[in-house]
Design goal:
This protein has helices at residues 14-24, 45-81, 89-95, 109-118, 134-137, 160-166, 202-225, 247-255; strands spanning 3-8, 31-37, 100-102, 122-126, 143-148, 156-157, 171-178, 188-195, 241-242. It is of the alpha/beta class. The termini are far apart. It has a single domain (3-46, 88-255), classed as 3-Layer(aba) Sandwich (Rossmann fold), CATH 3.40.50. It contains eight helices and nine strands. Helix 1 (14-24) runs parallel beside helix 7 and helix 2 (45-81) crosses helix 8 (247-255). It is globular, with a radius of gyration of 18 Å.
């Protein structure tokens, strides 16, 4: 089995998935590439900062900035002294000698050509910030799959953990599904429910689902390896879609007593 991951350079949340998955996966030599894009894809650093400020508010934005700075500092210490823990996906890959590829346009002809040369059996999207083109999807031998932190077909779209809390769900979910050219509409492979506790924060729910999805992915890869995958319909008529929360929706979230951290 030859596996390529497509992800973004997030040292706060997405790295939690990779920490757990790479710790538990039986044969890291099967991972022939981790493709890292900048956070939120085409957004500039300024636009990304504005979006985070609108979401978290000034105090929450400051807390997130501290977490980000701490992760970066931890990473620099490990790179220079090889002590402490790694806090980024690129450094984690270097530590485990997993091939690392930086690419901010994964739908480009040049990148797809490079990917085809690698001949991956599985392409796995973990919070990749792009909608995949048909050519990109078809660059895998067996399947192109995605991890979505919601019980599809409900909560398609952006930041599903926020919306599940916003709508006061008692249970959230994780779905691993095929990727097609429509957002979060590919056939479902595996699903798991996750209890949303009374004091759950957005921060804790995202980390909980990232860690749980790492264990789910182990099982899904084994299904593909043994040709035992079963698909379930992802019914579009039952689907709900949510975009990134607006400043007003973030304020409403806080007024409802919900917390980001």
């Amino acid at each position: 089995m030859k596996i390529v991951f497509l992800t973004q350079n997030d040292p706060i949340y997405v790295v939690k998935f990779f920490e757990r998955f790479l710790l538990t996966y039986s044969d890291l030599s099967e991972i022939i590439g981790v493709v890292v894009s900048r956070p939120m894809g085409k957004k500039s650093t300024l636009d990304l900062a504005k979006q985070m400020l609108h979401l978290y508010g000034p105090f929450g934005f400051f807390r997130m900035a501290i977490k980000y700075a701490y992760a970066k500092a931890s990473d620099c210490i490990w790179l220079s002294c090889r002590i402490g823990r790694t806090s980024s996906i690129p450094t984690l890959c270097r530590k485990l000698t997993i091939p690392l590829i930086y690419e901010d346009n994964i739908n480009s002809d040049s990148f797809i050509s490079r990917l085809e040369d690698l001949q991956p059996d599985l392409l796995i999207s973990v919070a990749s910030p792009f909608v995949f083109s048909k050519d990109l999807i078809q660059a895998s031998r067996k399947a192109c799959i995605n991890i979505h932190n919601a019980p599809l077909p409900k909560y398609r779209g952006m930041l599903p953990s926020f919306w599940q809390l916003y709508n006061q769900e008692k249970f959230g979910g994780i779905t691993i599904h095929e990727v097609n050219e429509k957002l979060d509409e590919g056939r479902i492979i595996s699903q798991k429910s996750v209890q949303i506790k009374e004091n759950e924060t957005l921060h804790s729910l995202i980390i909980k689902t990232k860690v749980a999805s790492a264990h789910m992915l182990n099982d899904v890869i084994n299904m593909y390896d043994n040709d035992t995958v079963t698909y379930y319909e992802n019914r579009p008529e039952e689907g709900t879609y949510f975009s990134f929360p607006t400043r007003h929706e973030a304020r409403t979230f806080r007024k409802m007593g919900m917390k980001f951290f």
